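Job type: complex structure
Entries:
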Amino acid sequence: MHDAAAAVSNFINLDTGAILYLFAVGFVGGLVSGFIGSGGAFVMTPAMMSMGVPGLVAVASNMCHKFPKALIGSIKRAKYGQVDVKLGLIIGVSAEAGVLWGAGVQEKIKAAYGDAGSNLYVSVAFVVILAIVGSFVLLDAIKTHRSGKTDEEETVPKLAKWVQSINIPGTMVYFKAINARISVLFTIPLGFATGVLAATIAVGGFIGVPSMIYVMGVPSLMASATELVIAFVMGLGGSFKYAMHGLVDIRLSMIILCGSLFGIQLGAIGTTYVKPFMIKLVMGLIMVIVLFSRAFMIPVYMSQLGLIEKLADPTAKLFKNVSFGIMAFALILGAFIVLKAMWQGKQAEKLAYAKGLLNG
Amino acid sequence: MGGSHAPKSKPYIKALFFGLLSIGLYAGLLVNQDLINSTFGKGGMNAALPIATAFVFSFVHGTFTGDFWTCMGVEAARKKGGK
């Protein structure tokens, strides 16, 4: 029935199974994004590609679901007083520049080394960045948990104190998230790096959120909420760029959006029930697990480039399946932790309310 | 997860309205997918079409999903901004 459209535009036919699959992936991704500000989208592109969607169409359609999702998520979390719109917009604009630069680097690598070279670059970037940042975030969350100080206000990290103490006239901007002024000469590189990462591994928040927390001193809840504003700005610009080339399959974007808007509302509500270190815990866990997912793909791409002995087809297929499985597991684990924490928070709230009634 | 101690009235009518509107939008998208794909896929200034579609869907479906969870009793903790 839809062969004509599929043939001329590389847009696949959709059956009920595919629609339900995209809805479910969207829901889980949205749930995680609503909670940690990003991180739910990275599984969408491979999920779509596994259905036969061409790579660029998958990337474009993923981005076109991301910006409306981030918009709704940021509005929801703004209602809880967790968003610093000014900070989000300033970092978002510099992130947009980073996206353009990062996409240019990608194109050059692809032109020089082909698809396998480009994929290898992406996977190595994934593994190196997630190993460094992810383990740092995860260890910090574990340290906070073990210290028993999870109920206390988050302290401003030393680096952030230093950044906040630097006064460069003409560049200082007040941000309510930290109740202090910071030079935009610090925020611009952070935003740029967020954008480069978004263009490379599709999840800028893995740099954006930790840099807001550890370099600027933004509290975890506000950092993850403000990241949604950054994702909106980046996603809007990126989607328009892809749409100019006719690469957005709006059906895929809107079906994923259908599930992810249910999820992002729930994830945003979840943030009001948890202690701040939970944001770091979920983010760190996902980052560390996902790095193993990408690590499994490195030998596959190296083999395609002839850098190592060629892998047998069944072995390469096994690596690809294991990689996708680990990625899906990371997301599902994240979603499970969010729901569990939310449930426990709700029960604690009910108990406190009942005690309050008993005590008059 | 119920907000049993929240006596606020729930937005059932609003959720129903936006839910039906959302179903209508998705039905329209899937029924006319050939026409939509060929028009949106042309690129150039037609890029505005998928962007506008995303905004419309996010407003309608976003309003519905927000009200949906409220009607289901899933609401934010009373002490805002976490613990």
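Summary: The first helix of chain A runs from residue 3 to 9. Confidence is low (pLDDT under 50) at residues 1-8 of chain A.
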